[in-house]
Structure formats: C-alpha cells, structure tokens
## 1
Amino acid sequence: MTKIGSSGTTMVLGLGNLLLGDEGFGIHVIRRLKEAELPQHVSVVEGGVGGFNLLGHLDGVKRLLVVDVMMMESPPGKIHLLKQKPEEPGKTILSFHQVGVLELIKMWGLLGYEPEITFVVTRPERMEWSTELSPPLQSAVDEASELIQRLCADFAGKE
C-alpha cells in the first residue's frame, strides 16, 4: 500500500476486495489511473480493505475522491458522483473487521482531517469469489477513470 497523502493535495482512494469480483472495482480504477498522466498534486492509492490502517494518513490532503461500490437503486456499472456522505442507518459494528469508509471518515474527522470528499461509486452486479469484474463494471472502470482525470484537472485549475 502506498503512503496516503504522500504527494499533493488531492488523493484518489480506491477501496474494495479484489477477490470478490465487483467488490474490487475501486482497486481496478486505481490501477487504471496509475497508467494515466495526472497533475502533480494528485496521489492515487490502493486502500483495499485497509480499515483502520488508513487512519492518520491524510496529512496535506484537501480533496479526497473515494472510489468504491455501493448498494443502491441503479443499474450495475452506472457511475455516480456523490458529494454528500451516504448514510447507513442502524448499522452496528461488532468487529474491527467491519470498518468501512464511512467509519473511517468519522474517525478522520475526530483526528482533525476534514478534506472535501467526493464519492465515485457504482452498484455491483455480482460479488462472489472471483478476481474478474462483471462486464458492466469492466466498462465502468474506463468511465470512472476518465471522470476522475477530468475532476483532477479541474482541481488543478483551482490551485
């Protein structure tokens, strides 16, 4: 895992489990972005299922783009930009292994890290033992990568 926040003011954080098919979407997008030319102020990070291992690494990060899958009413592979944190009402955490990005955001806030956060998400088609994405999410990797590159270029113009 790359040190988060090690360069620049924008971080793109890909989350997910590569062994569960579409659950690995965020990591696939990050790997595509590592092949692209991004502005100097942008770092791309494979967060995987890092949980609390990701705490405390946002030093200097003003903008955070979180790439992940989310259960929602939408066709699999359709990309959504969310500026507001999604809610998980009634979720109870019984173990440190259940820590998700929303819990991390709460913890980051307690540690004094409050970057502008944008979620780049899609709904998975299937989450099963596989290292391959479903066809709709394979196509969505390109779309998400291009969208993130445009967002990062826009951020560069505002620096």
## 2
Amino acid sequence: MVDFKELGLKPELLRAIEERGYTTPTPIQEQAIPYVLMSRDVLGCAQTGTGKTAAFTLPMLEILSNGTAKARMPRSLILEPTRELAAQVDESFKKYGQYLNFTSALLTGGKGMDDQIKKLDRGVDVLIATPGRMLDLFERGEILLHDIKIFVIDEADRMLDMGFIPDIEKIAGLLPRLRQTLFFSATMPPEIRKLASQFLMNPKEVSVAPPATTAENVKQFVLRVPHSRKREALRAILQREQLKNAFIFCNRKRDIGALVESLTRHGFSVVALHGDLPQSKRDEALEKFRAGVVPFMVCSDVAARGLDIKGVDAVFNFDVPFGADDYVHRIGRTGRAGAEGKSFTFVSGDDDRLLQNIVSLIKKEIEEIKLEGFAADMPAAPEQQDRRGGRHGRSGGGHGGKGRDRDRGPRQDHRKQPHAPKEAREPRPAPIQHEPIREPRETQQPMPQQPQGAGTVGFGNDLPNFLGRQKPRPPESRKEDTF
C-alpha cells in the first residue's frame, strides 16, 4: 500500500498531513496527485467522501510553494458552486499549507468586497471563489487573470445543476491558454463529460468508483410513511436510533423552517441551513453543527455537496430528492473516511417514480423497513389524494389527507340501502360548488337567449365590472386555464 511519502510531497506537507491523522492516501489521491505534479490536465471522478479536495489541494501546494504572487494577479483559481464548499477548500489549504509560505483569498457572495479586495491587493497564490463574485470583482477591475497557472473546477456536476456553466465558460475564456486544468466531479453523466472536453487538453482520467455509486459503508433504508405523519416518523427514528448527529434534507426551503419549528417544539436541538439565509447565519449554523453544539441540521441541497464533517451518524431524506444524483450526494454526508453511516428515505404519495430513478442510477435495491405503527396507515385513498394534490400536499392532500373532501360533509354509502325508495337512490348532482372558483367560467352551459338587438340585462353599455368578469371569453383565450 502506498503512503504519502511515496507521492513526492515536501516534508512540510507530510508533516501537516501527519498532524491531521492521515498516513495513507485514498484511491483518488493516490492516482491523481502524481499526474497533477506532472502538470497534466486531470479529469477526476470519485464518489463523495473519498478525499477529492486533498487530491488537488496537496499537489497544488507543492507546485505553488515555489514563487510568489503579484498584486491582483493570483497564480491559481479554484471555482466552487457554493460558499460553504469554497470556505471548506480554503480551510484545507490553510491546514495543509501551514508550514509553507503561501497566501490564499476566499471570494464569495454574502460578504462585503472591501476585505476581499485588500487581500487581492497584497497578492495571493490561491484564489478560491464562487463564479458570481469572481466575475463581479473582475468586471470592477480588481482581478487580473493572465497569470493563472492552475485552474480547478470542483463539483462540476453541481455547477451544471445550478446553472453556472455560462459563467464558467466566460471565466475560462479570460484565462491563459497555456495552463493546467483540473476537473473534478462526483458523477460523470454525458453532459459533464462533454463539458470537460471544452476545458481540458489531453487529460488523464482518474475514476476510482463507478459514476453515481454510493459508499458500501452506508446502510440505506426506505420507509413508507403517510405524508401527514412524516414528522412523527422522523421523531420516532431520532429517538430510537439515539443518533449523535444527522443531516435532515428537505426539497423546499419553506418546508425547512416548519420542520425546525416542529422538532424544536418536541425538544430536539436543531439548526437550519439553506440558500436564502444570510451568510452570517449559514456560517453560524455550520459551526454549531460541526462543533457538536447542535446535533441535527435541517437543510436544503446546499449542504449535499462536498461538506466534510466527520462522524455524522445518519442522513434523512425527509423528502425524496427530485434528482437521483442529489440522493448520492446527500447520503455521502455520512460514512465518510471509512466510517459507517445510515440513510433513511421517507416515501409517501407518488414518490415511487423518484425512488425508481434513484434505484436505476445507483443500480442497487434499497432495503425497505417498517416503523411500528406507521405501515398500516398507508391505504390507497391517501395516496390518491396525494396525487391529486401534488407532491407537497396542494389542495390539502398533504396535510391530514383531507383535501377538498372536508367541505363535502359525511359520505353516504347507498350500497347499504338496497331497498331504499327510488328517490333516495338518485345520484347526487355533480358537486360543481366544490370546484375551484374559475371552473364556472369554463363550463359549456348555454347562455340565455335574448331578443335580437336587446341590450345586456338592461344595463346598455354601462355593464358593471363584476358582471363583466362573468362574460365567457373567446375560445382562443382559454388555453391559459389549462395550467
């Protein structure tokens, strides 16, 4: 087995690595580091939690330890999709490079530009940035990019998902043609491979795991739970498992606050993390969770990529992710660095299609478990209501399974009255009064006949607005009601 000493790294780097408790490189580090040191372009693919950050951080520090940077002219550039990932990479550079003479700057949104500009004025060896803030400062004339020697695109698949590709293409066009480019991604769909071909020249491809696979040391479970009882099921598992800490992922930002409030009300210590929070709140939440002050974090997919927090016991998919790739990244927050972890995914309503997409991607069946007292609560009717109301309970389908039925009064079963009088067995009239307000405008009821040349109900040309709105629209304008 290879150790770090055989990779050709400086003694100062080896000392910092040893102090962090590492003795042998991970497969992605073992294969990528030598090629980076040879100044080759690298296309790296490895499942999350396998040490991709150190695979480019360590050789970059080795290369950049020789030479100094000039004012506003960084020597290397690393692009990250989120502020949290950028901050984590910056932290890795500082820890691994603590015995080397080098400088770095972190350029992310949510913070003032003045301090960032001051760092650039002093000269930086490593510039770690999100694409938006990077372009803002370049357009202000605060950054000169013609001295970039190493260009890193990290979490490329996340960049694609977040719509950053046009920004990356623009930034790449500002860099010198003669440079070394490192391209890292946890998954390698065709779109990412095509994108890599735009930026890399004769790259060495390093892939240590099949794309979109999950770590074997993460035990994956699926629980079928009615939408209205998901919070109750979550609390039951948190109490049963006696977890030290866990990530709890929701699909929508607005659901995060409601879940945090519910868990707090039941005695759980929880923080929230999503993209709409101010940067100071996001930093505070991460620090509390990382330090173990708060054991549970309810978050959006902003926390699904690249966050390296050791010792996370479990991940909960409170909502099945819309994208199958996001499932791989979410559960990658646990079981890191060889540790064991668990993932629990709640399936309700019409989530089966999303679940099948995940199974098809990871090519692995996920064990289905039952939580006592919950499996019996999954009749067909609530699922049908979920489908009528949408994934997130529109029209009330996701809140107690009532929906529009709560306005109809008690249901009657005429099959129990086979000898009832005929008038008692007449079918009920169509419940038009329970349709959305706009429906009466779409019904094809004939209009009352009026004598030719007559005015409109005696109002002439002064038709009141509230009657004017009831006037049927021409057929070509009705297509907007189909949405």
## 3
Amino acid sequence: MAKTAKSSATGTKTSSAKTTPKSTAKTTSKSSSAKDALNRFKMEAAREVGVNLKQGYNGHLTSKQAGSVGGQMVKKMIKSYENSMK
C-alpha cells in the first residue's frame, strides 16, 4: 500500500511505497526449513498441553487452547535458553 503526501512548498506529490526484496532460492530454502522446524516445535508443544492441532488452519481452537500452545512454546524457549547459559 503506497502513501501519498502533498508537499506544501512545491505542490508535488511524493509516494512512499513499501518494497520487499526478491526472494532467492537460497533464502526460500532457509525460510522453509525454519518454518518447518517451528511447526514441529509448535506441534510438540501442543501435544504436551493436550491440544489437538492439525496441519494447516486450526480455527476450531478456542483462545484458551491456542494460548496454552503459545505459552508452552515460550516456556520451552526460556528453559532452552537458561540451559544454554549454564
């Protein structure tokens, strides 16, 4: 989405459009493997708290269930960080 602003001094319009860099095959494979790892992590956390996740959209979950999965993920990340500091 581009924003257009009118310059008061010159009366010209300027545009500040958001641009995104083009993906390369190398970036895509890294991104894909990171997403896969995060998805595995999420599924593991869901199993630990007893939430039935499926691949793809999980709109059937309540806010409480979704929050418990996210909370479990955060707990595991903090524990992992603390263990790496020892």
